[in-house]
Design a protein that fits this description.
homodimer; alpha/beta; 9 strands
Chain lengths: 227, 227
Amino acid sequence: MKVAIAGGTGKEGFGLALRFLMAGHNVTIGSRDAAKAAASVAEAKELLGDDVAVDGAENAEAVVDAPVVVVTVPFAGQAVIYAAIRDHLIDGAIVVDATSPLQAAVGGKAWEVLRPWQGSAAEFAATLVPENARVVGAFHTVAAASLRAIDHPVEEDVLVVGDDAEAKSTVGELVEGIPGMRWVDGGPLAMARITEGLTPLLISINRRYKTKESGFRIVGRETWGAG
Amino acid sequence: MKVAIAGGTGKEGFGLALRFLMAGHNVTIGSRDAAKAAASVAEAKELLGDDVAVDGAENAEAVVDAPVVVVTVPFAGQAVIYAAIRDHLIDGAIVVDATSPLQAAVGGKAWEVLRPWQGSAAEFAATLVPENARVVGAFHTVAAASLRAIDHPVEEDVLVVGDDAEAKSTVGELVEGIPGMRWVDGGPLAMARITEGLTPLLISINRRYKTKESGFRIVGRETWGAG
């Protein structure tokens, strides 16, 4: 699968890039700055070998031929990055928004949550892309540190929300390609109002227990996935 | 420990009553209706044996000598039950609020969330009890069906939030007395704004996957508890 990661030089985006590359996907790391993207490409090759299918580009260029675009930026940069990519998305692109509306965006704490006018950052994102783009919320609860620890499986589940079942299943395939991970269909895009709040909850737990890797498993069923 | 459960004849409250009794605690099942409370007491004895330390009473009477009071009612009944018990709580009582502000309270869906003026149902509860009562939010994510399956451990974690560390630890002890369960300190009471949203998320997941027992485990650390 071809995946572009807008904001892919950040910790979360780069961690996902590594994991998608390890699963054999073709990854383009996007950044505001082409030089930064190139540096991350070099780092990925150093970690995974020269033969992984990775390249880098400015965000707008990174998305031009990607059926799946993952957007991993702090809330304060969300509108700016969507403005940069919106006219370059392919028809029917799956746009995976991982934004959590932390109050840190306006000088508050990272364990406090802002309520966007649309209800969630993912629903806000849906207003910033062309109508036929399919916005999915995912990866809010995945610790960057766990993604980066590439010698270990990621023992976490990913809550995937969205209004397009096929788009959710495609994101689910990306998730299941990462050793240890499973995906759980969390419902329509509006459920991002809940799942985005899990990031600050984990930040709060990480602070209290002096860890960087808290996350969630969903229990109560042997298998999850497309349901 | 002596525990009163206001709204203890409901599925969640009764499930907790059973589990606390099995752990050797002294439980008073509270209800609006003393006859209903008596029926639940009889059912508990039938399930667990005549020698368990259970009794029943109207809610106001149930709490009069309980250092820990658990309140498990639908959001629509929350203010009413606090009005009934507030003048009967002991000094410094630990009040465990398990309310989720589901939009079902006003005719909406159980997977939609209302935002109480105070931020969360637990913070609303804190305005409804005497100032020296210590409100803790907990048990939002625990499936009643899993509590009721008394021959099985409850393979779930409980997020406990509150502003009083000792109160959280006390609730944590109650949690850890239930086989399979662990407690995780989720931070101050305001974090209930997040943890209360986990109930509708699980309701949504239960619907989609046709189960009644979805829940959470927190991963990333071997042990949780008081941290």
